[in-house]
Amino acid sequence: MNSVDVAKPTLDADRDPVGSQRGLATSDTTPDGTWGVLSLPAGGGGRLGEVARGLSKAGKLPGYRAGSGSTGDLFSFHGFGEPWDYEVRAVAAGDQRVEFRPQIIRKAPLIFAIICILSIWPGAWLTDSMLKAYFSGYSWNTYLWYLPLTILPIPPLAWRMWTRSKAAAREHARDKIAMLRDAIG
Q1: What single-letter DSSP state applies at residue 12?
Q2: Which end of the chain is more exposed for a tag (fewer CB within 10 A), N or C?
Q3: Residues 100, 124: contact at Cβ < 8 Å?
Q4: Distances 12 to 36, 37, 58, 81, 84 between C-alpha atoms, Å
């Protein structure tokens, strides 16, 4: 039977014989949506915050932001995705447990949606006027083929971007959580 040294911070997945890479849960279906759980010795949450701040000053924890008392966050950092990034919040879930919860940074997906919406109609009008100007015999209703051709690929494209971003950000966050675990322990 494995015994866990309480002096060294561990991830809860380290005790799981099935486990995963670097001791972090890889399942996307965690009950509370966390990307990792770090078990610390008693009172280790404050020490973890100090270590995180030190790593951010050394340039090893991108997007570091100190936590606020109102939300219960110890700190947060960026998990870089492709093309959308996540903010990973370290939340104290007790005296000896820190959970890392993701939240997408909404600015980039919002910009993507606005560009998609604002570019479709002018593109339809421009294509219709160009085809009628260059081809005198063109009399089709351009909107009947142009709108489905431009709108139908957007949902699968957005879904692919969403899932790839989440996977890449999760992997980046795993690396940073493992780095935090090694730095504190």
Answers
A1: G
A2: N
A3: no
A4: 8, 6, 27, 25, 28
Decide which of 4 and 53 is more confident: 53
Residue 185 token pair: 């322990």
Convert the pLDDT of each residue in 132-165 to its tens digit: 999 999 999 999 999 999 999 999 999 999 999 9
Two tokens, residue 11: 């991830």
pLDDT digits (tens, 9 = 90+) for 77-109: 999 998 999 999 998 887 778 889 999 999 999
Helix ranges restricted to H, the chain:
44-57, 107-134, 142-151, 154-184
Place of tokens 């050394």: 58
Please report, for residues 12, 44, 65, 78, 168, the alpha-carbon distance to residue 171 in angstroms, rounded to integers and kept in the order given: 17, 24, 20, 12, 5
Work out the end-to-end distance of the chain between its first and last CA atoms, rounded to an integer number of angstroms.
Answer: 22
pTM of the model: 0.73
Q: What number of CA atoms fall less than 13 Å from residue 183's CA on the CB side?
A: 19
* Burial of residue 52, with CB atoms counted within 10 A of its CB: 0-12 exposed, 13-18 middle, 19 or more buried: buried
pLDDT at 36 over 80: yes
